[in-house]
Specification:
GO terms for molecular function: flavin adenine dinucleotide binding; oxidoreductase activity, acting on the CH-CH group of donors. This protein has 391 residues and is of the alpha+beta class. Helices cover 47% and strands 15% of the residues. It folds into 3 domains: 88 residues, Butyryl-Coa Dehydrogenase, subunit A, domain 1, CATH 1.10.540; 108 residues, Butyryl-CoA Dehydrogenase, subunit A, domain 2 (Beta Barrel), CATH 2.40.110.10; 141 residues, Butyryl-CoA Dehydrogenase, subunit A, domain 3 (Up-down Bundle), CATH 1.20.140.10.
């Protein structure tokens, strides 16, 4: 029995696989299988298909558009989506903001936002990082000053993924200057169409536009958009980051990239011999497979046994660290296999079916250089491990 899953979990996995095979649009599958990032329209179309089944927000209560699935089913679902080359539901909506609203939001906020988050009628981005703040999130300087029924927001966010696509942003802002920097922070929901909000693109090393700077210039935000208590936004942030860590290992994506590497090696020939039959490459693929399997088992242990995380606070850092390193190793291998053909320039918005199969190799290689930085850099994860596991 695979991973010692229960009969019910195995049946659910079969159900998910059949659903993906039947409903995932072929053009989306082709784009992601070639290594392209999902476009906005890909994510929206697929999330709405999943929403019909309640699987866009599988762990949410049914009354807000979810399916009330347990941890095992949720993990099975997300791993199968990644292995199939399907876009995941927008994490800013589903894995980050949704759980925060369920825990800290007012009933009016839940009723208004959660169904739209699940169906992706609203696209949210995350306004946490700021210039000069590094990994010290609590040192943020964006200010929100109360003025009647509004906050007046001034400041800047940076490295804001998909802000150019977003309808709204959830942001940490400083509403009070306190001795302890984690205090006096508030969690605001801000409409990106608000006067005074502007977005400037950041083109990253892969040549693509994923990231942005977001500026707030006397932007007036209704007090009704405050989540939780004023000055207690750090509680929301910690809860959000804990929710975000449920899929940090990206096991399914690692398996999908390993499969892609094997397929590529099978298609490349050296004379009359497939590159896949080279014993040195075979040993490298086997080693990567063994490491992914170990990561998979560790991820299951962490997510299915809450006591592990409580007793070992650094356990999540192990998953982040190893998952990041494996994704870099896999994309490096694919770039190496592709050789000069992988350097071909391509139209990121074009028809993937009409492109060379290796067209996305170099951009994906460069994109995944960032895996050891975002979500907590490897250096930060090692510091956490040193403090929590080594004392």
């Amino acid at each position: 029995m695979d991973l010692q899953l229960s009969p019910d979990a195995l049946a659910f996995r079969d159900e998910v696989r059949a659903f993906i095979a039947e409903r995932l649009p072929a053009d989306i599958r082709a784009r992601l299988r070639r290594g392209h990032a999902a476009r906005k329209q890909d994510t929206v179309a697929w999330q709405r298909i999943l929403h019909e089944r309640g699987w866009a927000a599988p762990h949410w209560p049914a009354e807000y558009g979810g399916a009330g699935l347990g941890t095992t089913e949720r993990l099975v679902l997300f791993e199968e989506l990644q292995r199939a080359g399907a876009p995941l539901p927008l994490p800013f909506n589903i894995a980050m903001l949704g759980p925060v609203l369920l825990r800290f939001g007012t009933e009016a906020q839940k009723r208004f936002f959660l169904p739209q988050l699940a169906r992706l009628d609203l696209w949210f981005c995350q306004g946490f990082s700021e210039p000069d703040a590094g990994s010290d999130l609590a040192s943020l300087r964006t200010r929100a000053v109360r003025d009647g029924d509004h906050y007046v927001v001034d400041g800047q966010k940076i490295w804001t993924t998909s802000a150019h696509h977003a309808d709204w942003i959830f942001a940490l802002v400083r509403t009070e200057q306190t001795a302890r920097k984690q205090d006096g922070i508030s969690f605001l929901l801000i409409d990106m169409k608000t006067p005074g909000v502007s977005v400037r693109p950041i083109v990253s090393i892969d040549g693509q536009h994923h990231l942005n700077e977001v500026f707030f210039d006397s932007a007036r935000v209704p007090v009704a958009n405050l989540v939780g208590e004023e000055g207690r936004g750090w509680d929301c942030a910690k809860y959000l980051l804990a929710s975000e860590r449920t899929n940090i290992a990206n096991v399914g994506l690692c398996w999908e990239r390993l499969d892609a590497a094997r397929e590529l090696a099978a298609d490349i020939r050296q004379g009359d011999t497939r590159l896949l039959d080279d014993p040195k490459l075979g040993a490298e693929l086997a080693e990567l497979g063994a490491e992914i399997r170990a990561l998979e088992l560790t991820n299951w242990r962490f997510l299915l046994d809450p006591e592990i995380g409580r007793k070992n606070p650094g356990f999540a850092s192990v998953l982040k660290l190893k998952g990041s390193e494996l994704m870099q190793a896999l994309t490096t291998l694919i770039a190496r296999l592709a050789g000069p053909a992988g350097l071909e320039r391509h139209d990121a918005e074009g028809d993937a079916a009409q492109q060379h199969p290796l067209a996305a190799t170099a951009p994906r290689y460069f994109f995944y250089r960032a895996t050891t930085i975002y979500g907590g850099s490897s250096e930060v994860q090692k510091d956490i491990l040193a403090k929590t596991l080594l004392g």
